[in-house]
Amino acid sequence: MRKWLGLSSPLIITFILLSFGFESKEVKVPETLKVKQPTEVLFPKNKTMHATILIAPPFLGSSYIGFKEALAFKESQGNYFTTNTLGYLGKYQFGIGTLQLMGVYNATSFLNDPVLQERAFHTNIARNKWILRRDIARFVGKRIGGVEITESGMMAAAHLAGAGNVKKYLRSWGAFDVSDSYGTTIAKYMKKFSGYDISYVSPKRNPKV
Questions:
Q1: Closest Cα partner for 156 from 80, 88, 66?
Q2: Hey, CA dihedral for 108, 113, 114, 119, is it positive or negative?
Q3: Hey, which of 57, 144, 153, 168 has its CA 20 to 30 A from 178?
Q4: 119-144 pLDDT tens trace
Q5: 63-107 confidence digits (pLDDT tens)
Q6: CB–CB of 111/90 below 8 Å?
Q7: What is the 3-class SS of 133-161, one letter each residue?
Q8: What does pTM read for this prediction?
Q9: What's the angle, vertex CA 97, arms to CA 94 and CA 101, rounded to 5?
C-alpha cells in the first residue's frame, strides 16, 4: 500500500496542477517601441577601437577647476598625451610658440609631463589676463552679438586665438572675428565658456613656468 502511494503521489500532484489550466495572454508592443527599419550603427565602421576610452568630465561647477576641465575636454577630451593634426600638444593643445614664451622648449618632455601641462595652463591664463587687463575692465558685463562678455569667455577665446586677436574682436565689437583651422571662432568660445569664476588666477606680466 505504501509503495503504491509513493508511486502515485507525483501523478496526483501533476494532475492537480494541470487542472488549474494556464491562460495565455497576448502582449501588445506599443507602436513607439516597434522596430520598423534597420537602426543606424553608431560605432564607426571598419575602424579599430582605441585602447583609451575617453569620458566626459564630471560636472565641476563654475569654479576655475570647472573652467579648465571644460576647456581641456573641448580641446583634447582631456588627453594629456595627444598631438593633433596641426602639431598642438597635450590636454590643452598648446602650440610650441606659446610654450616658448613661458619657458618650455622641449615638446616631448612637455607632452609626457601632466604636471608641467597644468602649470603651463595656469601660467598662460595669468599671462593673458595681464595682456587683456584693460579690456577686462572695459568689456566685462557688456554684450557683443547677444553674448555677454565675461572674463572666462575672454580667457578661453585667448587660449583659442591669442590675446591679440581677442583685443581686436572686442575693440571692433565683434566685427573682427577669427577661427582656428577647425572652424571654431572667438565668438563661439566667448559664449561657450562664459560665466566661470577664474579669479583664482592673478594677472602676471611675462610669467614663466
A1: 66
A2: negative
A3: 57
A4: 999 999 999 999 999 999 999 999 99
A5: 999 999 999 999 999 999 999 999 999 999 999 999 999 999 999
A6: yes
A7: HHHHHHHCCCEECCEECCHHHHHHHHHHH
A8: 0.71
A9: 100
Least confident of 4-18, 90-104, 108-122: 4-18
SS3 185: strand
Residue type, 63: S
* Cβ neighbours around 28 below 10 Å, total: 6
User: Which positions ≥6 away from 47 have C-beta within 8 Å?
Assistant: none
Q: List, in order, residues 6 or more apart from 19 with CB less than 8 Å away.
A: none
Place of cell 500500500: 1
Radius of gyration of the chain (CA): 31
- Nearby residues of 24 by Cβ (< 8 Å), 6 or more positions away: none
- Alpha carbon of 56 to those of 5, 50, 77, 82, 207: distances in Å? 68, 16, 7, 16, 31
Q: How far apart are CA 71 and CA 77, in angstroms?
A: 9
| Burial class for 4, CB neighbours closer than 10 Å (0-12, 13-18, 19+) | exposed
Residues pairing with 94 in the sheet: 89
The residue type found at 81 is F
